[in-house]
């Protein structure tokens, strides 16, 4: 279903429209939940790069996508990649939301696992 929504929205709005990226992120989450890690990685990387370019690297949507990508890397046992992304996410949350925000603290907790 999400793939059909994505294809239809891309035809109507173009591939870089912000609502397209939300669908890409959601589809990545579905693939991650289904254990389709390579597909989830590709989708999260697309959303991360496009959101970073259009909204900035410290935008909450960009950071949340980075956090999901970190989870994919952990599931793939790519711990160095996971740690790198998680550090970037933590830095972004600290700069955007402050050091005591729950999202920042969650990213810190995830990073401490590496």
UniProtKB/TrEMBL annotation:
Record bears the keyword Lipid metabolism: no
InterPro entries named in the record: Kinesin_light, TPR-like_helical_dom_sf
Pfam families: TPR_10, TPR_12
UniProt keyword annotations, A-Z: Cytoplasm, Repeat, TPR repeat
Molecular functions (GO terms): kinesin binding
Cellular location(s): Cytoplasm
CC per GO annotation: cytoplasm; kinesin complex
Single GO biological process annotation from the record: microtubule-based movement
Gene3D superfamilies: Tetratricopeptide repeat domain
Record keyword Cytoplasm present: yes
Domain of life from the UniProt record: Eukaryota
Protein name: TPR repeat protein
């Amino acid at each position: 279903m999400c793939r059909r929504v994505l294809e239809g929205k891309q035809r109507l709005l173009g591939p870089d429209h912000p609502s397209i990226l939300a669908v890409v992120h959601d589809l990545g989450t579905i693939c991650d939940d289904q254990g389709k890690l390579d597909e989830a990685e590709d989708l999260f990387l697309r959303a991360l790069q496009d959101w970073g370019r259009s909204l900035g690297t410290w935008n909450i949507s960009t950071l949340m996508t980075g956090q999901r990508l970190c989870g994919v890397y952990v599931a793939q046992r790519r711990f160095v990649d996971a740690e790198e992304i998680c550090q970037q996410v933590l830095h972004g949350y600290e700069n955007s939301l402050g050091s005591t925000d729950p999202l920042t603290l969650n990213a810190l907790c995830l990073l401490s696992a590496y």
